[in-house]
Design a protein that fits this description.
Layout (H helix, E strand, L loop, with lengths): L1 H21 L9 H15 L5 H12 L11 H18 L12 H10 L5 H14 L3 H5 L3 H8 L5 H18 L8 H4 L7 H11 L9 H9 L8 H9 L7 H14 L27 H5 L33
Length: 326
């Protein structure tokens, strides 16, 4: 009896267990939708939250793209750009000329030697008395060194310059019959005469094209990225390759004019520059038009030029003699 009762109880428990197993669970079941949301939430919970600044930085980093390196300028493009600047300068300075007063090749040679480390204006103020005392190479070669030094003293470095003038005058007298030679290879053999001085004389006294690579010329052609060279002879060679030979002398005058009047070494007058749209260095100087206009020199700034006896087509006024008031 007891055994039967126990058996019945066991069977009932087994039946209840089976029924419970078949019945739906009352706990929350994970449906496909809830599983996806749970996975997404779990993934989010694993990430480290960003601060506001960090989020902005990430956004900015994504937005800014590294700048593409500019393509190197081809030789053809460089030639075109350089020649366009030359044409613009020709329109601005149709009166460009050598800014040394001279009447013959000897005077131009002497004045150019004296122009080292000083202004053409100071040379022009000094040479009238010098040429009155020594009008020919023979006269200057026979000059008393101390008397010559005193006459050229205002140009600076007067002892070294007097030595050069005495030497070149003697060479002209002894080797060239008192005449200035018209060939570069002869001119550069004279004391104190280099390629720059020789090209000035050849271009302006003999009509032989040449490039005058002085400090203004070198500074501007590098600013315009016509060359990266520093050595004057290398600069001369690279610029000569950009222009026809017939342009060399006038190109030199235009560049030197622009360097003295507008494109200064320390503070270029960018805001008053007539070729600003063509200049790759625009912005190195003063860009405000009113402030830039005050930086202009000589006739561009409404003041006298460097020559006491300028050409007839010069639009400015002549410079004053040495010692003149004002």
């Amino acid at each position: 009896m007891t055994a039967s009762r126990n058996s019945a109880v066991g069977e009932q428990a087994s039946a209840e267990s089976a029924k419970a197993a078949k019945a739906p669970k009352t706990t929350t079941a994970a449906t496909p939708a809830t599983s996806a949301r749970s996975a997404k939430s779990a993934a989010k919970s694993d990430k480290v939250p960003k601060s506001g600044n960090a989020a902005k930085s990430a956004k900015a980093a994504k937005a800014v793209k590294p700048a593409k390196p500019s393509r190197p300028e081809s030789q053809v493009a460089l030639v075109r750009r350089a020649r366009r600047i030359n044409r613009e300068l020709a329109d601005v300075y149709p009166y460009a000329h050598p800014e040394l007063d001279f009447e013959n090749s000897f005077q131009l040679l002497v004045a150019t030697v004296l122009s080292a480390q000083t202004t053409d204006l100071r040379v022009n103020q000094t040479t009238p008395a010098l040429f009155a005392a020594y009008p020919t190479p023979e006269d200057m070669a026979a000059a008393d060194p101390e008397a010559l030094e005193q006459l050229i003293r205002p140009t600076g470095f007067f002892r070294a310059k007097a030595k050069s003038l005495l030497g070149l005058s003697a060479a002209l007298r002894d080797r060239f019959d008192g005449e200035v030679p018209g060939r570069l290879e002869d001119l550069v053999t004279l004391p104190g005469v280099g390629r720059k001085t020789a090209n000035v004389v050849l271009g302006n006294a003999f009509g032989v094209p040449g490039l005058t690579v002085d400090t203004h010329f070198g500074r501007l052609v590098r600013r315009w990225k016509w060359t990266a060279q520093e050595d004057p002879e290398k600069v001369e060679a690279e610029i000569a390759a950009l222009f026809p030979k017939s342009e060399w002398t006038m190109l030199s005058h235009r560049i030197i004019f622009h360097g003295r009047r507008v494109c200064h070494a320390r503070k270029p007058a960018c805001g008053a520059c007539p070729i600003a749209p063509l200049c790759p260095a625009y912005g190195e100087g003063e860009t405000d038009p009113d402030k830039a206009k005050k930086l202009l020199k000589y006739e561009m700034g409404g003041r006298p030029g460097q020559r006491l006896r300028p050409p007839a087509d010069y639009p400015g006024s002549p410079a004053a003699p040495l010692g003149a008031a004002g």
